[in-house]
Structure formats: structure tokens, C-alpha cells
Write a structure and sequence with these properties.
Radius of gyration: 28 Å
Shape: globular
Strand order of the largest sheet: 3-2-5-11-8-9
Distance between the termini: 68 Å
Number of helices: 16
Helix content: 10-25%
């Protein structure tokens, strides 16, 4: 094997620009590293750098070979690329989502060789394909300032999105190598069958160049079985009377085992977990449920949507992704949804999810556009699905495969499809059936869901507003400007998308803007807001709920407070509907660049206030406050495997911090449904009081939350006079905060990157709170800033 990664030479089609470039990597990062272009993420640089995608680019290098009979292998090649060896074209690639294998024996020579990757301009290639379609195929122009991304098998968000920079980058993010000809194990499909007597694991192995009759051996957990290879295929089953099960985070251990396949001198391994995942869509009096059962246990799915970890491939690193995924688990998530406008991630990504116990709802890579239905496009999609499913489906984390993101809705978004719905519906059906057929033939036991959102297979209804069946995307609060209580007006069976925007944290804003630009109407700030009207909606919502903030930094803080309040309102209510609702995945976990967005993690991995609040509202035992005609009902929700004894106490708290008890309860919370602890009548609270409530489950530490019956701007919050005591030991800080009055959404900010143990909490008189801060660089002294709802909205 000859590895061709490492240093290459980059040049554009005119010869005007040249730079060294390392593979894996992307061309835009290489140009920036060479000082040819400025930081694309700074200021408004994006708009002056789109010329890069309008040119062809060439990557070249030389290497020495000692023999000719070799295969060139390239993965995650982005995207329309002519590959030549010693001046002879050996491959014309057109998909980032395929691994390309090509025999280069006729082009390779002993000694020095020259290899060239000719990257065609993605916008030009996409337009040529669009012009060649038998009828117009619309794309989401509002999201994508670079047009026709739906023509290419490339991440759709590369062309822009309502949270992403639009640069249409190019490069290669996987392997590039030469392999000697010879037999190989090309694919391993692993299936599991679980029943009352144990589990059967079946491996279907595809080979190349193996003689018929050769023994193929499979071993797992001390057991071994073999079968002959017939026509390059062998199927081997192993029966286990008992096995240590793999569980999603919060429900048990993530036990993983190595499955080994051997034939002749060849070996290959796959790491698997014993687990059984079923999608239960039982009919009931409301419609049709949507619940994932893991190892026979109904599990409420708590999580967020995953988008690419960075807009530029060179910046996507395993350790950085590990931190993002660990942050998801640390916020009590057990599922992420790999969204269909991004990419299929590298193998290590799914290894991390296996280890962390994060189930993956995996879209195929189609989002929000309409798509071609030509034979060549569908043939490419068929091959893509078979490869990706064969590569990934053995992972314990893979819960289900979904056909696309919002393509059913897209049928109604474009004038062309509204005028001729039948034509575009047939085109969609051809694509969707291609996906389903390829999945079922590659992994017959895999769970298939046709689209997100979707009421059910073969149903094309409105799953944005109809909450009776299937999975739902609920965007009325953000896109329609409805109030947060509107989250309580719907009762989804499973909400796979919903969200509310905030600004990134100040340390992130300082990475792309000068203090002179610290104004939401400044061109630089508007260039880092990709959702039309997003800044106005954030500000308008503040007027609805809060007194307006004092200064830009308080605006940023308050935007994150209201984002957290919005998502908490939705999640706590929908969890209280269990088992009617069995999943909530908010939009979105992470960011691709520093931008105003719906994420709970900043670009770079820092926690916004939402992520701290998510850690609380996704905890295994919570108390949800649900307003009713009679008062505020406190419902206990328990997602632990076993019942929990929960003690609940409710208080009326005045603005000066005085507390009086208005109710107590002790309940046994089962795992099947939420249980009512108590109802606090409206009359129990005075106009200047809010409801606070504590709970403790099975003698665990006390948790607290509050419910405000009126908008926060209606309360006369006063100065909380928060005092702090800060100690530092071995680079770790402990910050103890004490308040003289009620302080809501207290946020501690550091002047350097790091992780707080908690944030956006409430302070009550006589109840100090201690949090910890772990700086990224313990050698530098950290300074802290304290904010709360009153100080952010009142001149001092």
C-alpha cells in the first residue's frame, strides 16, 4: 500500500494562484494558510471569496512506485474531479459520498509518477447539470446563494444555508492511496436477531478475488463459525444464549465487542454492540405512535440535530468532534440526528457515538430541494446508499435510516411543483423508492423512515402542523413568530426538529467582529445572520418577554436566555406527554462557523446558555410546570429504567427573595408515563411572585426550576447584589455566588475558553450556588463577569 496523503501543490486554472496544500484538507484553508486570502470567517470576507468556487483548481504531486498492478482508492473526494496519472485520465468522479476505486495499471509506471486532481468548479458543474435536466428542478434559493447544489452529490449546505457560510469548498477529506491488486474483503453486513432465548448475529461478507469453496471464519466473544465463499459471498451466523447488551446513554453500559472475519491471509474487524432497536408505530385513539424501543424498553429520545462540525473540511478533527459529542452526552442526550443537508461522517465519528451511547437517526443526504429523477442520477444514488449502509449499519449507534429532510414539504415550496405536482411527486417517489430499495437489499433488518417529517410511509401530509402521527418538525414559534406557549398547543408523537435562535457567545463574536461592529444592525453582524429576518425576530421576542437589554453584550446574553426559555418550554411540556410523545431533538447541536443560529454549542464547542439548561431539562427525572385553567400543575417525568421516589416542594417567591411554601408532594414516578405531583392554584401566588419548585429523586441532590405566569418584563426585579467568592486550585476555579434578592438566569462568563459545571441558574436569598470552571489553558489567570436578568435590562 502506498499512502498519497500529505503535501501536494495547489494552483488555479489560470495559474494566478498557487500554494502548498495538505491532504486530507480543503483548498480554501490552504489558500488562507498560504496568506493568499484572509480569514473567510472574519467580518464580511465571505462575499469577497466566492470567486474561489467559480474557478477550476488543480492539485498535483509526484511519487515513486515500484510496480504497476495497483488500484487507486479515494474517499470523500469533493466533488467533480478528473483524476489523471502521468497525463492519462483514470477517473472522472462526481460524488463526495462514494469511495472511488480504479485500476491504474495501464497508467502507472515504475519510478517517478505524477498524479493530478482537477477539481471542476462546483457552481459551473451544477449549472451544466441543471441546464441538461428534462424539466426544471428547483432548489432552495433563499438558503443557497450559490445555486443548483441539488444537482451534485455534495453537502447541500456547502452552497449556503440559513446558518452556514456559502463558499462551495473543494478538497478531499478521506483516504488517497494505492493498493496492490489481490483478493480483499470488500464489505461486511452485520444483522442481529434478538428473542427470549438469546441473540443471533449474522455476518454477510462480500469478497473479491476469493476462490469458491474457501473457508471464511467469523469469530465474536469467544465463538467461531465458518462458511464457504460462493460467488464472492459467505454468510455466517453465531448464536448466543446470553450477551452483555449495549444501551444508549443513561440506560446502561455501552458494551462493545470485536467481530473478526478471516479468509486465507485476510482479516477484517467490525466493532458491534448487542442491541435490538425497534420502531413501534402502533395505532391509538390519536393517530399513530412513533417510539423507539431499545432491547425491549421504550426509550424517550432526548437530543439534537447534528450538522457538519465545520464549514471547511480541514477544520473537522476527530478530537474536536469527540468534545462536541461528549457535550451532548454531558447534557443528558441519548440521540443525535445526522441531518440530510450535510454529509456521511467518517468511521471514527460513529465509533465515538458507539462509545458514548448516542443513538443516531441518520438521514440520507437530501434536504429541502427537489432533485433529479434521471436514470444516471438515481443509479448514482443507489450506489451511494449501498456503500454507506454497508459501511455503517453494523454500528450499535445506528437507530434508523431516513430518506431525506423536508422533501415532502418542498413539493409545495416551488411554483413549478405547485403548478405540476404530479410530475414532481412522481420524481420524488422514484428517488424515495431508490433509497428504500437500496437500504433494504443491503441491510434488510434496518429501520426505514421515508422522510423527516413524515406522518407515515406512503403519506404525503403536512407533518409541520399535524401532530397526530409520525415525526414532526415544529417551526411555528420561530418562523411564524408565535409565542413560546404555542409549544404547548401541539402534542407531537416525536419532534425531530424545532428551534429558536440566539447570538453566539461574546468570545465567539470577537473572533469575527471588531467592537465597532457590536450592533445587531451593523453589516458585519448581519452578514453572520443567515436567516432572513432573524435579528428582527430575536429583538421582537425580547420586547414580548423582557425589558430591553442595556448594551450589546447584554443583548447577546438575553438572546441566549430567551433561546433557552423557548426550548425548555417545548421539551418540558412534550416530555410531560410521555408516552404519547417519545422524542424531542432540537435544532441544532453545533455550528459550522461563528454565526447567529439555533445551536446550543458555539462554533468551537463552547456551551451556550441553552446547553446548560438542556442538561437540566434532559435530566432523567424532571418536574414539568404545565399551566392549566386551575393553576400550575407540576408533573414528574422519569426516564430512569426503574421507578423513582420523588419529593417535590413548591414556593411562592417575591422579587426581594422572600419564599413561602405553597405545596409539597411525595410521589412514586414510574417510567411509563408522567405523574401529577400537585397543582398550585393561581390564587396561591401574588402578582409580584413567581413559582419556584424543588425536587429530589431517590435521595439525589436537589434540583430547582421556576415558572413565571407573566412575561418577565411585568415583574419588578430589583438589584440582586450578587457577591462572589472565587478560589483556584490546580487550574480549576470554584465560584460561589450569593444573592441578596431573587436573581434569575444568572450567567457566569469567563474571559478565556473553558467549561462551566453549570450556568443560567436562579439564585435565591439564603441559597448560595457554587459552580466550577475548567479553563482550556490553566496557566493563564481567568477573570469572570456575572450577569443576571435585572442587571442586563436596567441601567446601573
Amino acid at each position: 500500500m502506498l499512502d498519497l496523503s500529505g503535501q501536494w501543490h495547489l494552483s488555479d486554472e489560470t495559474g494566478q494562484y498557487s500554494a502548498p496544500m495538505s491532504l486530507p484538507g480543503d483548498g480554501i484553508s490552504a489558500l488562507r494558510a498560504a496568506g493568499i486570502i484572509p480569514d473567510p470567517y472574519w467580518g464580511q470576507n465571505e462575499y469577497d471569496l466566492r470567486w474561489i468556487s467559480d474557478r477550476d483548481w488543480l492539485l498535483t504531486r509526484t511519487f515513486r512506485a515500484t510496480e504497476r498492478n495497483m488500484t487507486l482508492v479515494l474517499s470523500m473526494l469533493d466533488t467533480v474531479v478528473d483524476v489523471s496519472l502521468n497525463g492519462q485520465t483514470v477517473l472522472q468522479a462526481n460524488s463526495m459520498f462514494r469511495t472511488h476505486r480504479v485500476d491504474v495499471s495501464n497508467a502507472l509506471i515504475p519510478g517517478e509518477n505524477v498524479i493530478t486532481l482537477h477539481f471542476r468548479s462546483a457552481p459551473r458543474a451544477a449549472k451544466a447539470l441543471a441546464d441538461a435536466q428534462p424539466f426544471p428542478v428547483p432548489f432552495q434559493a433563499d438558503n443557497c446563494p450559490i445555486p443548483h447544489g441539488n444537482m451534485l452529490r455534495k453537502p447541500e449546505c456547502d452552497f449556503g444555508w440559513d446558518w452556514n457560510i456559502a463558499l462551495a469548498p473543494f478538497g478531499m477529506y478521506g483516504d488517497i492511496r494505492l493498493e496492490q491488486h489481490g483478493p480483499r474483503i470488500s464489505a461486511i453486513a452485520v444483522a442481529q436477531d434478538h428473542n427470549a432465548t438469546g441473540a443471533t448475529v449474522t455476518a454477510t461478507v462480500q469478497t473479491e478475488g476469493i476462490d469458491d469453496g474457501a473457508d471464511l471464519r467469523v469469530s465474536l466473544c469467544g465463538q467461531e463459525a465458518c462458511a464457504p465463499v460462493i460467488s464472492n459471498t459467505a454468510t455466517v451466523s453465531l448464536k448466543f444464549d446470553s450477551a452483555e447488551l449495549w444501551w444508549p446513554a443513561g440506560h446502561g453500559k455501552q458494551a462493545l465487542h470485536v467481530l473478526t472475519v478471516a479468509v486465507g491471509d485476510l482479516t477484517a474487524t467490525r466493532r458491534i454492540g448487542f442491541r435490538d432497536v425497534q420502531l413501534v408505530t402502533a395505532k391509538d385513539e390519536t393517530g399513530t405512535g412513533f417510539a423507539l424501543h431499545v432491547n425491549g424498553r421504550p426509550v424517550f429520545m432526548k437530543g439534537a440535530n447534528w450538522i457538519p462540525a465545520d464549514a471547511l473540511g480541514s477544520a473537522i478533527m476527530k478530537e474536536a468532534c469527540r468534545e462536541l459529542l461528549q457535550s451532548a452526552v454531558d447534557a443528558n442526550m441519548n440521540m443525535i440526528r445526522v441531518w440530510g443537508g450535510g454529509r456521511y461522517e467518517p468511521d471514527w465519528f460513529y465509533d465515538l457515538c458507539d462509545e458514548l451511547g448516542l443513538l443516531v437517526w441518520h438521514d440520507f443526504m437530501f434536504a429541502c430541494h427537489l432533485y433529479p429523477a434521471t436514470d444516471d442520477f438515481l443509479a448514482e444514488v443507489d450506489a451511494e446508499v449501498r456503500e454507506q449502509v454497508a459501511r455503517l449499519n453494523h454500528h450499535a449507534c445506528i437507530a434508523l435510516w431516513c430518506g431525506d429532510n423536508e422533501l415532502l414539504g418542498a413539493l409545495n415550496w416551488y411554483e413549478e411543483s405547485r403548478q405540476d405536482r404530479d410530475r414532481y411527486l412522481v420524481a420524488y417517489d422514484r428517488l424515495n423508492r431508490t433509497l428504500e430499495k437500496a437500504l433494504r437489499e443491503t441491510a434488510p433488518h434496518a429501520i426505514w423512515w421515508p422522510s423527516s417529517p413524515s406522518p407515515r410511509p406512503m403519506s404525503f401530509g403536512d407533518a409541520w402542523h399535524d401532530d397526530r402521527s409520525g415525526d414532526m418538525h415544529f417551526w411555528s414559534v420561530w418562523h411564524e413568530g408565535r409565542d413560546f406557549d404555542h409549544y404547548r398547543d401541539v402534542s407531537p408523537r416525536f419532534c425531530s426538529e424545532f428551534g429558536f435562535q440566539s447570538y453566539p457567545s461574546m468570545d465567539v463574536i470577537r473572533r469575527f467582529a471588531d467592537p465597532a461592529d457590536f450592533n445587531i444592525a451593523a453589516p458585519v453582524m448581519e452578514s453572520h445572520q443567515k436567516n432572513a429576518g432573524g435579528n428582527a425576530r430575536i429583538a421582537e421576542t425580547m420586547f414580548r418577554y423582557f425589558r430591553f437589554p442595556v448594551g450589546f453584550e447584554s443583548f447577546v446574553y438575553l438572546s441566549q436566555v430567551q433561546q433557552a426559555l423557548a426550548i425548555k418550554t417545548a421539551v418540558t411540556h412534550w416530555r410531560s406527554l410521555k408516552p404519547h410523545c417519545m422524542g424531542a431533538l432540537y435544532w441544532q447541536l453545533n455550528d459550522t462557523w461563528p454565526v447567529c443560529s439555533w445551536s446550543s454549542l458555539d462554533h468551537g464547542g463552547g456551551w451556550k446558555l441553552l446547553h446548560h439548561v438542556a442538561r437540566r431539562f434532559y435530566a432523567d427525572v424532571i418536574v414539568s410546570a404545565v399551566p392549566t385553567a386551575d393553576g400550575v400543575e407540576l408533573l414528574v417525568v422519569n426516564d430512569q429504567p426503574d421507578a423513582a421516589q420523588v419529593e417535590v416542594e413548591a414556593f411562592a417567591v417575591s422579587m426581594d427573595g422572600r419564599m413561602r411554601t405553597v405545596g409539597t408532594a411525595s410521589v412514586e414516578a414510574c417510567v411509563d408515563t408522567a405523574i401529577s405531583a400537585l397543582v398550585v392554584p393561581h390564587a396561591a401566588l401574588n402578582d409580584d411572585e413567581i413559582l419556584m419548585f424543588d425536587w429530589a429523586a431517590n435521595d439525589r441532590p436537589r434540583q430547582s426550576d421556576h415558572f413565571a405566569a407573566r412575561p418577565y418584563k411585568a415583574y419588578r426585579l430589583g438589584p440582586a447584589s450578587i457577591s462572589t467568592e472565587i478560589t483556584e486550585q490546580d487550574g480549576q476555579y470554584a465560584v460561589t455566588l450569593t444573592s441578596a434578592a431573587l436573581a434569575l438566569y444568572v450567567a457566569v462568563e469567563a474571559d478565556m475558553p473553558g467549561r462551566f459545571s453549570d450556568n443560567a441558574f436562579d439564585l435565591l436569598r439564603g441559597r448560595p450556588v457554587t459552580i466550577e470552571f475548567t479553563p482550556a489553558d490553566p496557566s493563564v489567570t481567568t477573570e469572570f463577569t456575572i450577569r443576571d436578568l435585572h442587571s442586563a435590562t436596567h441601567h446601573i
